[in-house]
Amino acid sequence: MKFSRKSTEHLDACRFCWMCRHICPIGNATGQERNTARARALGLSLVAREAVDYSEDIINNVYECALCGACVKECVTGWDPVAFTKEARLGAALDGKLPAYVLKMVNAVLETGNVYGAKPDGKLATKIRGLDKSDTLFFLGADARYKTPENAAGAIDLLQKLGVSFTARENEPDSGYGMDFLVSATSETKSVAETCAAALNGYKKVICYDPADAKIFRREYKKWGIKLAPEILTFTEYLAIIIDEKKVKKSDLVFTPQDSAILARDLEETEPIRKILGKIGRVSEMLLNRRDTMLAGNLIMNEYMPAVMERVAADRWINAKNVGAKILVTESPAEYALLAKTKPAGIDLVTLEEAIAKCL
Ligand code: SF4
Ligand code: SF4
Predict the structure, then answer these.
(1) pTM check: above 0.85
(2) Atom 4 in ligand 2: which residue has the minimum CA distance?
(3) What is the number of the ligand 2 atom nearest to the C-alpha of 36?
(4) Rounded CA gap, 360 and 355, in Å?
(5) Residue 251 C-alpha to ligand 1 middle, in angstroms?
(6) CA distance 316 to 320
(7) Tell me: the pLDDT tens digits for 89-99?
(8) Is the CB of 339 under 6 A from ligand 2?
(9) Structural domains in the chain, sorted by start
């Protein structure tokens, strides 16, 4: 496994540093030193020096990172563990060293069009078939379509209630987010992205239900030179625009936003959710909010380390309890799914669309 000069520099900077160890949601969940940016860098720096093999254990460790960017945000010296971790995943793919649990998901994308190898949900497919044609596409994404179809259906219902003209695709292509997460920019990842771009280029506007898809459309496609003609909006920012023009009831409900790490850190979007929740009720913040947010779960990692993902979500519930949250509001289908699985008594969990629907 050969690392680029840039990644080698970052590995060498991180390998003896402890400064971000408290911020890693995985390290906090497992309590293990191996789940810190520094430990990952130490192992990979030895691989880069050819002092040790790129072994199964080191590769497994590379897949224990959620790429959530909390360490990158925390690093005052500007080093980037997400970048070297993605390069290490690319290297594992190119060297033919992917763990079986990763290979299974990569093959699922290539063979079935989704990382979970799942079949479409019947009720959601019927709902999608009932939508009119429009040049605005509501892109649901793999997590919502295959893991939380009831959330996807609820989001469609809300857009209809708000009088939005939009459509969705029964044969929605995969955005490539799962491939990018698992193996970074391989030729297969780019090919999945190119197929998706070709399908999307007939629309004027694409509203992404899942922040992960908005991120890959806006950032990675550009990096890979893949042209995407439509305007790309996140669901949250689109709802903020629509709600601004609508009459909604201001309730006495107190909402606590669970900022999506992808929205807050990768896309630098933190205010639309507050604008919406402030209009329909009152906002009460987590201590770690906006760019400091803590990941509450990742459904791809849930396929191979479910106990840790549940612990990650449970930790976020502890944060919510500590600030006296009453209603936790999510923007990401993955976080909703894992928070729902671990929900304690005494706090409600709602998606952003459910919060809005309460006040229409
Ligand atoms: S990302 Fe920054 S703070 Fe974290 S281990 Fe690397 S150098 Fe240290
Ligand atoms: S990107 Fe997130 S999960 Fe990975 S080491 Fe950094 S803080 Fe931990």
Answers:
(1) yes
(2) 65
(3) 5
(4) 9
(5) 43
(6) 6
(7) 999 999 999 99
(8) no
(9) 5-97 (1.10.1060.10), 122-238 (3.40.50), 248-358 (3.40.50)
